[in-house]
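F.,

This is the one I mentioned.
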């Protein structure tokens, strides 16, 4: 279930202020991004590696070039997102990613 996220770091992503988000992450701040909405956002350059993004909704987002290795993306949807150059977690099969990209299915990570 998607939730309303009131975190200041999440709000930085919603405002597409990637620099502020990355600076906070570099300082060791934490953020809960589970079940969050990222619909239509330009997230290029965001330091998301290793974060729990489970249940996230990335419809029509620009994820190009992101390093998502180590992220929990179980239950995420990337329908119609731009994913060129993305490093997805190794637990996600190409088939899962493609089904989500084309049909909007929620991705299932292999354990």
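My design for it:
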């Amino acid at each position: 279930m998607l939730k309303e996220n009131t975190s200041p770091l999440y709000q930085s992503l919603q405002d597409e202020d990637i620099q502020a988000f990355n600076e906070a992450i570099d300082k060791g701040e934490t953020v809960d991004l589970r079940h969050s909405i990222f619909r239509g956002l330009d997230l290029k350059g965001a330091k998301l590696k290793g974060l729990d993004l489970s249940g996230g909704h990335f419809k029509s987002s620009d994820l190009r070039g992101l390093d998502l290795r180590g992220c929990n993306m179980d239950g995420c949807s990337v329908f119609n997102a731009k994913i060129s150059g993305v490093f997805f977690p190794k637990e996600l099969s190409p088939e899962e990613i493609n089904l989500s990209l084309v049909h909007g299915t929620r991705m299932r990570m292999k354990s």
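Residues 1-111 form a domain with the Pectate Lyase C-like fold (CATH 2.160.20).

Talk soon.
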